[in-house]
Predict the 3D structure of the following.
Amino acid sequence: MEDNPRFFDLVGNVRAMRRLKPDPVPRDLLMKVLNAGVQAPSGMNSQPWSFLVLEKSGDKQWFAEHYKAAIESRFGDLSMSGEDDSPVARQLRALQYQMTHMQEFPLLLIVCGLRDWPFKVPQDERVGLAPPNYGAIYPCVQNILLACRAVGLGAALTTMHQVFEEELMERFQIPREYGAVVTMPIGYPTGRFGPVRRHPAESLTYFDCWGNTAS
Ligand SMILES: Cc1cc2nc3c(=O)[nH]c(=O)nc-3n(C[C@H](O)[C@H](O)[C@H](O)COP(=O)(O)O)c2cc1C
């Protein structure tokens, strides 16, 4: 069978896009992207995902304020000198932009996952709330990232809402059976898409026994 070269271009070109225009995202385009998300695999095809989309300015403002407070409580001041051109400095500047413009982005997508105990937790140790089914939610999230890229939308995966998850659940009436796994600001990017920087699989792959690289 022939390779689909466009897939390999796309998958290597899905950077976290943290600078987004405020221009609205058409509803049918959003649904196209989310329908790519739900093509993901899940255990027993349980499809344990649900989506909450925040578009109203009061809701986005609420989220943005809590997000900023969460980042500052964990990392302090993110400001970086504009002269430092290292990848870390560039990422910090992008994170700071995202944090201070969150309320202006057209939509914040919260991907929620049904709670489900992992097999390895024995029955008698299942106390309190199970974690959301991360193993199924992340393939769905990756499909959404790829689909956004394919239709020219920028998106970034964020998880800092975990710091204020209780308030988030309460404000948006998310039922207890679900956990909020990822928040993705989505919109048209201000800048250009570009290639990701990753270690090649050859440097991370062992054959037959840990430590044996391909010779
Ligand atoms: C589990 C997980 C959590 C992440 N959390 C955040 C986050 O809270 N905020 C953010 O801006 N990016 C977050 N990211 C995105 C990564 O920072 C990003 O993918 C990585 O730095 C590589 O950058 P690139 O995708 O632009 O190449 C997260 C990614 C993963 C997989």
In short: The pocket of flavin mononucleotide is lined by residues 15-16, 18, 95, 98, 156-160, 196 (CB under 6 Å). Residues 112 and 147 are 18 Å apart (CA to CA). The first helix runs from residue 5 to 11.
